[in-house]
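Internal tracking record. Fields below are filled automatically when a chain is submitted to the structure queue. Please do not edit lines marked as system-generated. If the sequence contains nonstandard residues, flag them in the REMARKS field before resubmitting.
Queue: standard
Priority: normal
Entity type: single polypeptide chain
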Amino acid sequence: MSGLVRTAHRILHNCVKNSSVAGAVVSRTQVPVKRDFTRGIWHMSCSKRLDSTSASSNLLHHSNTCGCGCGLKALHTKDQQDQNAKAKPLGERELVEFLTEEIVAERKAQKLKTLPSEVEGFSVKGDGAEVVLTKELKDEIVKITFNVNHTVDSEDFGDDVQQEKQEFAEMRSKPQFEVDLVRGATTLGFTCSFLQDPPTTNAEEYNDIFGIDEVTLYTGEWSDKVYAVAGDVLDGYLYDLLMNLLEEKGISNEFVQKISDFSTAYEHTAYINLLEGISKFTIGK
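SYSTEM-GENERATED OUTPUT FOLLOWS
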């Protein structure tokens, strides 16, 4: 790979990054990305259904995914409907019904029902939103740590793709991640992040999908007193050598892509668990 090409792209990437983020180093906290819900359309249709009554019938039909405890029979007597209306405010009932439908839809869209316990030889340990991948080599331990909070964004298909298709684009997680090479009590640490789409060049093809944001070296536990240097001020040749070092430790483009795949599945599972938790909280169980 051409060192000049990689350096040029790194400079362009940092210019883009610095235009929207203050400081030379990317913060571990990612910018939240909202998921698009058709809340307005759903709310109008739901309110219309709840407000309309029929004087000629003693039975009220409603959604098959009702969350009021009717056993999903989709049929209520008027007395049951009145009793449930008194039990929960309208806003809570609408929320439960929406969450029930949303959970079903998200589970159908879930690609991995069971998360793997290993990724390319790295053991996986999840703790809430944080994930740690660990692999023991001959004389060192390679540890990768990332947090899935606020890491989800939709795939960019370009300006030539119709807006309708972009609205249903796949949600992918591309977290900033820490790579620690631990030898005894000493740790060589890297903060890395996914690059934006690389620019087209006439020189040798450039295909890195991630870059180094920060490099540090410390003994024992890390603290704010430890010196760190930003990746965009490193000598270009030194930057290339550090990227080669990471690749030798297994942190290649292919592996980083698999980190994104796993992070996407892990974040999706956490999102579904959150929806289920909100539903149970609202119901009061």
